[in-house]
Amino acid sequence: MLPDLTNYLLFAKTVAAGSISEAARELGMPKSTLSRRLTELESEQGVRLLHRSTRGLKVTDIGQAFLVHCESLVAAAEAAQQVTQMVQQTPRGDIHVSCPYAISQSLLVHLLPEFMALYPEVRIHWRVTNQPVNLIEEGIDVALRVRPTIEDSSLIARTLSRAPTTLYAAPDLLNQHAIEHPLDILQVPLLSMHYSSGRYRYELTHTSGDKLSISYQPRLITDDMFVLREAAIAGQGMVALPNYICSDAVQQLQLQRVLPEWSLPLGIMHLVYPYRRGLLPAVRVFVDFLVERLPSYAQQLYYNEHSY
């Protein structure tokens, strides 16, 4: 059976106030009632928690150890109350968002105005970067990241979408080089995103389940997917990119899918934010908006690539 935690909270409040009289005044309850509840708590615990005298209160040694946990209960109760109060508040104020270039330009550029129309009192600081960002140190409320997993225990991560990635090249380049097997890829110039490891490798999976790993040296390395796409359109090399980045170019016959029976690992998009007991209203509605709208919008872009 769980104990009645009210007396625990009253004990912590009394110690913080410095006297039973002051605590009773702050709590809005009779001094006699508070004194009785403290006596009940000591009786329940079977130890003396407070020494009372005309000069005030003195916490006993065991009372000090007990107080630490009671203060944690007070903090948890106040945080819980804050969460419910925030639900009733109008979202307003600043939110700081970090997002990679490709996601910003292909997905969020269309959804952001929709959010702004829904919440006119929210001001957004939109930081576009492909560099790693420490959310806590740099004051970022929400970030979008593309990677297999988010291992930082200080962050909450919610998976938004899984984007297929395919090899693409310009028709003229493919006319010059017959690409019938993954190893044939090494005959043409290759374009790649930057990887901090310095290792460049295609991890390919055939529709039959066969797997193949191919190491390569890129001719062009950049953090910008759109630069890679334009270089591929210009016939300067083959590139592996998310389908939604190249869908328009494929429809306009500027790019072709290469070895479509072979697939690359999915690009998994996560929404991440620092672990807190309660999100501010503006941050909460932004998180909820992206969780609701972005997955379906991303899927729509993916299916558009297959509609031609």
Written overview of the protein:
Belongs to the LysR transcriptional regulatory family. This protein is an alpha/beta fold and 308 residues long. The chain has three domains: 6-87, Orthogonal Bundle (Arc Repressor Mutant, subunit A), CATH 1.10.10.10; 93-163 and 268-304, D-Maltodextrin-Binding Protein, domain 2 (3-Layer(aba) Sandwich), CATH 3.40.190; 165-265, D-Maltodextrin-Binding Protein, domain 2, CATH 3.40.190.290. Helix content is 42%, strand content 25%. It contains nine helices and 15 strands. The protein has helices at 6-17, 20-27, 31-45, 61-87, 101-118, 171-176, 225-233, 243-251, 281-304; strands spanning 50-53, 56-59, 93-99, 122-128, 142-146, 155-163, 165-169, 190-193, 201-206, 211-215, 220-222, 238-242, 256-258, 262-263, 267-274. The chain has a five-stranded mixed sheet, covered by helices on one side. Strand 3, helix 5 (101-118) and strand 4 form a beta-alpha-beta unit. The N and C termini lie far apart (64 Å). The mean pLDDT is 88.
